[in-house]
Amino acid sequence: MESEKYRKKAMRIESQLLGKLAVMGQTKFAKLMGLTDTKVCRMKEGFFAQAALALAILEYGVDDHEIVELAKRFAAVLTNKKATAGTVTSSQMLIEF
């Protein structure tokens, strides 16, 4: 029963780690770690799960407040659209032909 508690927490931590990796970008992460992109890609298959389980067992996790902040930043990246030509104070003209 106790191991299930750790596994649930580990899955949450792994999700957070992979989310942060996605926000940062795999290439930037690889460069900062001194690894290749392909090595980081392979790490996503097992390393992050093992690291997350170790962090869960050691009672080291990411604060829920941090999860909310990460979700907001990730949503902002996903919804980032090219700005329209008009500004807030100006109005755009519609020209029909």
The radius of gyration over CA amounts to: 20 Å
CATH architectural designation: Orthogonal Bundle
Percent range for helical residues? over 70%
SSE ordering: HHHH
Indicate the structural class.
Answer: mainly alpha
Number of helices: 4
The CATH superfamily turns out to be lambda repressor-like DNA-binding domains
Distance between the termini: 70 Å
CATH fold group: 434 Repressor (Amino-terminal Domain)
For the secondary structure, the number of strands is 0
Number of domains: 1
Low-confidence stretches: none
**Strand-residue fraction?**
under 5%
Detailed description of the structure:
The chain has a single domain, classed as 434 Repressor (Amino-terminal Domain) (Orthogonal Bundle). The chain is built from four helices and no strands. The model has no long low-confidence stretch (mean pLDDT 78). The termini are far apart. By secondary structure, the protein is mainly α. 6% of the residues are buried. It is flat. The longest helix has 23 residues.
